[in-house]
Amino acid sequence: MRFQNTVKTIAACAVLASVSVLFAACSKSQPEFRGVDISQVDYARDFTPLADQYGQPRSIKDFKGKVVVVFFGYTQCPDVCPTSMQEVAEVKRMLGADGERLQSIFVTVDPERDTPEMLKAYMANFDPSFLALHGSAEQTAAVAKDFKIFYKKVEGKTPTSYTMDHSAGSYIYDTQGRLRVYYRYGSGVDAMAHDVKALLQEAG
């Protein structure tokens, strides 16, 4: 009887092992990000109803098949904004042929001064494929709130010489339009490149 019970136990373990292997083979391991993994958050789903510098309304759905990096800033920003945009341009270069699968989105928090013409010229400094979104003051505030972005106008010596305090991180979406990573300003180009590559590899 003891022998029969042992055989049954071995058989049961074999079945469980087979099932475990089957599940392991069917499931993909989650990538390990160097940025902050925010795959489970329920905010920052989209940036509608903002339009790009060419007047085209944009949605995250427009970029299916691409990893999307979203950054909030303004064209007269002295340091953080150009540095962040240059980093995305560098990541695109590092990806080689896969760089075509990376889309940068710049959302202005200064719609008063950042006209479409201004945004066209600004994006041209970094990469011709980069898009800049703008809207009314009310639309900008609504989108920024959904993304949990802080921004505030800081008065200057003249009415048009003001600056904008604003959050400096970037949001990274996978190829299915799902928010996955928060990239802190100053984390370095290699960290962003690693996470973008991981999301591209995940998509296959």
Q: Care to describe what's here?
A:
There is one protein chain. The chain is α/β, with parallel strands linked by helices. The protein has helices spanning 2-26, 80-94, 116-124, 137-146, 189-203, and strands spanning 36-37, 67-73, 102-108, 131-133, 151-154, 163-166, 170-173, 179-183. The strands form two sheets. Strands 1-8-7-2-3-4 form a six-stranded mixed β-sheet. α2 (80-94) links the parallel β2 (67-73) and β3 (102-108). α2 (80-94) crosses α5 (189-203). Mean pLDDT is 89; it is low at 1-27.
The ordered H/E elements are: HEEHEHEHEEEEH
CA-atom Rg in angstroms: 23 Å
The structural class is alpha/beta
Percent range for β-strand residues: 15-25%
Major beta sheet summary: 6 strands, mixed
Low-confidence parts? 1-27
Indicate the mean pLDDT: 89
**Secondary structure tally: strands:** 8
Number of helical regions: 5
Helix content: 25-40%
Strand order, main sheet: write it out: 1-8-7-2-3-4
| End-to-end Cα distance | 52 Å
Shape: globular
Task: Tell me the layout of helices and strands.
Elements: H1 2-26, E1 36-37, E2 67-73, H2 80-94, E3 102-108, H3 116-124, E4 131-133, H4 137-146, E5 151-154, E6 163-166, E7 170-173, E8 179-183, H5 189-203
Parallel strand pairs: 2-3, 3-4
Antiparallel strand pairs: 1-8, 2-7, 5-6, 7-8
Question: Which labels suit this protein?
Answer:
204 residues, alpha/beta, 6-stranded mixed sheet, two-stranded antiparallel ribbon, 5 helices, 8 strands, 36% helix, 18% strand, disordered N terminus
